Amino acid sequence: GTIIRSADWFGVDGIILSGDCVDPYNPKVLRGTMGSIFHVPLAVAPELTETLTRLKQHGFRMYASAVEGAQAVPEIQFRKPLALILGNEAHGVSGELFALSDQTVRIEQYGRAESLNVGIAGAVLLAHIAGQIYQKGHSTR
Predict the structure, then answer these.
(1) In this structure, are residues 101 and 63 in contact, taking their beta carbons and an 8 Å threshold?
(2) CA distances to 40, 41, 92, 111 from 32, in Å
(3) Residue 139, pLDDT score
């Protein structure tokens, strides 16, 4: 729910979910979206790699989130159209999706927490991306 709500807040055009993702119409998820599920188009892609490959063939740049070995978000010049790839909390982004990405991105860490949950990490990344796009005078819609 948090990712959908954050995507709505930051003007994301749509969300593609992997086939093994939690059901977005699960009552707990629906409550978490606070109505945003009605504002952001959702699609489920049983073959996520294939779907993202098609997007890439249509000019989308792929940015995959990572904890280590990636460039810090403020240092990146994001270009549209783009797709932000978020991994699940247990395993992160798969190697297959990392191989497909044009760039890996990370959120700078200053404290001692082991990790952020995917909803919070997604919101932080979207805030950086949307802020940069809006500052350039482009609409995210």
Answers:
(1) yes
(2) 14, 16, 22, 27
(3) 54
Sheet order of strands, 61-65 included: 71-72, 103-106, 61-65, 82-85
Domain of 72?
A: 2-135
pTM for the model:
0.90
Determine which helix (DSSP H) or strand (DSSP E) holds 98, and give its type and residue range: helix 95-100
Residue at 141 is within a domain: no
The CATH number given to whatever domain includes residue 120 is 3.40.1280.10
Q: Identify each DSSP E strand in the chain by its residue range.
A: 15-18, 42-45, 61-65, 71-72, 82-85, 103-106
Kindly state whether residue 140 falls inside one of the protein's structural domains: no
For residues 62 and 68, give the distance between their C-alpha atoms in angstroms, rounded to a whole number.
Answer: 17
Q: What is the mean pLDDT of each run of 10 residues along the chain (141 residues)?
A: 94 93 88 91 94 97 92 92 90 91 95 92 96 72 49
The answer as to whether 12 is a domain residue is yes
